[in-house]
Amino acid sequence: MSEHICAEIVPIFEQLDHDELLKISSLVVHHHFQKGEVILSPNTPSQLVIVAAGAAKSYQLSASGKEQLLSVLDAGDFEGEKNLFGVQNQELYVETLKNSAVCTIATSEFQQLLENYPSIALKLLKSNAEKIAALEKQNQLLNHDSVEQRLATYLLDLAKIKNNDQIVLPMKLKELASFLGTTPETISRKLHIFSDRALINQERHTITIKDSTALEELKNA
DNA sequence: ACATTAAGCTGTA
DNA sequence: TACAGCTTAATGT
Questions:
Q1: What is the mean pLDDT of residues A145-169?
Q2: Which pTM does this prediction carry?
Q3: Is residue A67 helix, strand or coil?
Q4: Helix, strand, coil: what percent of chain A each, to 5?
Q5: Cα separation of A94 and A4, whole Å?
Q6: Rounded to whole angstroms, how far apart are CA atoms A157 and A154?
Q7: How many Å apart are CA A188 and CA A174, to the nearest integer?
Q8: Between 3.55.40.20, 1.20.1250.20, 2.102.10.10, 2.60.120.10, what CATH number should domain A6-134 receive?
Q9: Closest nucleotide to A186, Cα to C1'
Q10: Is A146 near strand B, with its CB below 7 A from some atom of it?
Q11: CATH architecture of A144-219
Q12: Among chain A residues 70 through 129, which have CB within 7 angstroms of nucleic chain B?
């Protein structure tokens, strides 16, 4: 497993020259985690975690103690940046979905870095704004009162993002269920209902939207 | 209308 | 064939 990839693959470190990358690499600690390990929680030290290879999920716990999925982190994605600005992490968890290579940067050292390289702070800001936009969208999703509305909205949004009526679900149904605030069983049933009504075609994780107008009506019902 | 529980099915290593 | 992921059905809230 390569030991010096993090700084090069992360978007916020793009466009830095070789010397700058070297300085960052000296602050980075490399780890390897098995599938299912919790790598960031309210109990772990304050740090930025970067997924170098593999995948992880970030989530918070609901009142009843269940996972509420926030996002799936693939290679190059990171989480915990609010730790870097002195915000105490009280609710955020990050757990590996596969065996993964993960890099961490401690808060104190990163603050030093931000002072020396303001361009990194700007990229972090942009990335953070995008993350907030995604969370606002999910918040809007969860405000729809029925699962059918939430699922219809999600599918239409995904098709819009990909600019294609044929979409591939980016996560397991179990995770999609958590993302939409429901159960895998209900997701499975609703997808079948949509298929029966000829709103979509489903072949495993590949879904083709056949009647977007009907789905639009459903989500606004 | 949806969750929970339990059991059965299917693809993949 | 053992396991994870998904589905189906029965029952509960």
A1: 92
A2: 0.83
A3: strand
A4: 45, 25, 30
A5: 22
A6: 5
A7: 10
A8: 2.60.120.10
A9: B2
A10: yes
A11: Orthogonal Bundle (1.10)
A12: none
